[in-house]
Amino acid sequence: MLVLELHFTAAPDRLAARPAHRERLARLHRDGILRAAGPWADDSGALLVFDTTRDRLDAIVADDPYYRTPGVRVVGVREWTPVIAP
């Protein structure tokens, strides 16, 4: 699994781009690629958990304009090996 961490700023473009981004996330979840996603409680960023390869995740990020929207920054991508998971 791969974990994608985002950082947010108060740029208004981010909120305008969010509905289309969340629609993409819902499709990825239905397809079993996205396992979980959501913002930090203080809305300073978000965490997304993907069950896919790094190449596929890079393609997902490249295909979604949200990740290039002012106010959104990809902080990092890390491989994660869950010991306990749903």
TrEMBL record:
InterPro entries from the UniProt entry: Dimeric_a/b-barrel (IPR011008), YCII (IPR005545)
A family per Pfam: YCII
Signal peptide stretch: none
Domain YCII-related: residue ranges: 12-81
Family note: Belongs to the YciI family.
Annotated protein name in UniProt: YCII-related domain-containing protein
Species the sequence originates in: Streptomyces synnematoformans
